[in-house]
Amino acid sequence: xxxxxxxxxxxxxxxxxxxxxxxxxxxxxxxxxxxxxxxxxxxxxxxxxxxxxxxxxxxxxxxxxxxxxxxxxxxxxxxxxxxxxxxxxxxxxxxxxxxxxxxxxxxxxxxxxxxxxxxxxxxxxxxxxxxxxxxxxxxxxxxxxxxxxxxxxxxxxxxxxxxxxxxxxxxxxxxxxxxxxxxxxxxxxxxxxxxxxxxxxxxxxxxxxxxxxxxxxxxxxxxxxxxxxxxxxxxxxxxxxxxxxxxxxxxxxxxxxxxxxxxxxxxxxxxxxxxxxxxxxxxxxxxxxxxxxxxxxxxxxxxxxxxxxxxxxxxxxxxxxxxxxxxxxxxxxxxxxxxxxxxxxxxxxxxxxxxxxxxxxxxxxxxxxxxxxxxxxxxxxxxxxxxxxxxxxxxxxxxxxxxxxxxxxxxxxxxxx
Amino acid sequence: xxxxxxxxxxxxxxxxxxxxxxxxxxxxxxxxxxxxxxxxxxxxxxxxxxxxxxxxxxxxxxxxxxxxxxxxxxxxxxxxxxxxxxxxxxxxxxxxxxxxxxxxxxxxxxxxxxxxxxxxxxxxxxxxxxxxxxxxxxxxxxxxxxx
Lengths: 417, 147
Prior knowledge:
The complex is a heterodimer of chains A (417) and B (147).
Chain A lengths: L15 H6 L7 E2 L2 E2 L1 E2 L10 H14 L9 H21 L7 E4 L2 H16 L5 E5 L8 H10 L2 E5 L9 H7 L4 E7 L11 H10 L3 E5 L11 H4 L3 E5 L10 E5 L1 H6 L10 E4 L4 E3 L13 H17 L1 H20 L4 E4 L8 E6 L4 H10 L2 E2 L1 E3 L4 H6 L5 E5 L6 H17 L2
Parallel strand pairs in A: 3-15, 5-6, 5-7, 7-8, 8-9
Antiparallel strand pairs in A: 1-2, 4-10, 9-10, 11-12, 13-14, 14-17, 16-17
Chain B lengths: L2 H4 L2 H8 L12 E7 L4 E10 L2 E10 L2 H14 L4 H16 L25 H15 L6 E2 L2
Parallel strand pairs in B: 1-4
Antiparallel strand pairs in B: 1-2, 2-3
Helix pairs in contact in B: 2-3, 3-5, 4-5
C-alpha cells in the first residue's frame, strides 16, 4: 500500500507578527502607504523594550558615571557597567576589560588604527584589507599608511562578490602586520570566511580586526571561537540606539596600547607633570560616555536573545531566499552579490532605471530601500555600476514586505516603460 | 506625492534619448560634475564664439532627472551668452526649490522640472548639470561638487 503522507509544515517557531508589534514605527504610514522598511542594514528600528529601557534610565537613574558617591550616580554606574557585562556575554568575551564603548563601528576601527597600528607600523609593514570593505574599513587604514609609510594592500573580490580566498591567503606574509576585514559585506551581503582568514593571518603573526557592523544582527558572534584580536560593531544595527557601539579587543593588546583620546574618566591621577592612565576598559573612554545608549544596547541584546539569535537568522534567511527568487523572476533585475553565503542583504539594479529613480518610486509606494554606493565605492567600481538599490531584512520583515517591494518594482517598470 | 509630476513624459523622453549627448573634440572648455550622494557624474563640453555658447554637449551616467535636466539644459543654452545662462539658471533654481514659484512661460520645456521641488532629495540631481555648466563657463576644468 502506497501511502503518501501529506507533510505538514512545522509550526513557525518565529512569530513575526508578534515581533512587529514590538516596533511602534512599523505602524506609521509613508506617503499614504503603510511603511515597508527594508533598510535595516543602514539602521534598524527599535523595539519597545529598548525604548522603555532608555526612558526608564532617563527618568529614574541618570547621573554621571564613575563620579559621585550618591545613589543616582551609583545606579547610573551600575547600569552602564551592567551594559558592559551584557555585551561581554553577548559576544562571549573573556572579560569586561575587553569591552570598550565607542560611538560606533567607525570609531572602533579608528581607535585601533590610531592606537594600535599607527605607533607600531612603518615602511615595509603591510595592512591587508579586502575589495568589499565599507569606507570605514578603508579610510582609517589609508590614514595610517600616510602617517607611517606602511603599505595598504587589497585582496580582490570576484563577480559573485566573494573575496578570492586563495588570493587573500597568498597576500599574507610576515610583512602583514594587520588584517582588517568585514564579517559581512554591507553592499552585497556576502558572509566572509573570517575564521579561516583569521587563522591564516595569525599563522603569519598578523593581528586581525573584524568589522562586525553587518554581522552582529544576523548571527551568533563568539569572539573567542573566532579568535579575532579586535571585533567592532554598532548598536543601531542590532535594534539599539544610535551613537554607541563596541570595540572588543584582546586584553593583552589593549593593555599595551596607548590611550587615543585624553580627558576625564580615562585617568587615575593628573598633575601638570604626569598623568597615570586608568585601567581597562576606561583607559579608552575619555569623557562622559553615552550612558543611556549603553543601557539601550544592553536592552537590545536582551531583546534579540529573547527572540533567539538562531531563530532570527533562520527567519531572515528564509526571507532572503524568498526575495531572491521573487526578484530573479522580474525581467531586467540583476542581483549584485550572488555569493552562496549571504546575510539578509539584497543589492540589485533594474535595467533602464537608475537606482536613484528606483528609490524615489519605491518611496512613493511606502517602500524604504537604500540606493547609492552604500559607502563602498570600490565595490561599485568593481561591478562597473554607479549605484545599486539595496533591500535588507531584519527580524520584523515579512513575505508581505517582499510582495510590496515586488509590486513597487513593477510600478517603476511602468513609469519607465 | 505624485510620481507623474516628477517623471513627466518630456523628462522620460530626454532620459531615454538625451539630446546633445557626447563630447566635443575641439572644445573651448569643459568641466566635470559629481554628485557623491548618488554617484551621478557628468561632463559638460563647450564651444564658445563671441562670448556665446556655440555648441554644448554632455556625457555621463546619472538618474533620469539628472540626465533629462542636462539634456534639456543643452538645448536651452545653445546660442546664449554667460549673462543669459546665469539668468536662466536663476529661474531654474527658483523652479526647483521654491514651493511658491509662479509658472514661468519663458522656461519652455525646462518647466517640466517643476515636479522636482516635491522631492527635495532630488533637487541636486536636476541642478548638477547647471553647476557643471557654470564651472565650464568659468573655464575651470576642476571637478565641481554639489556637496
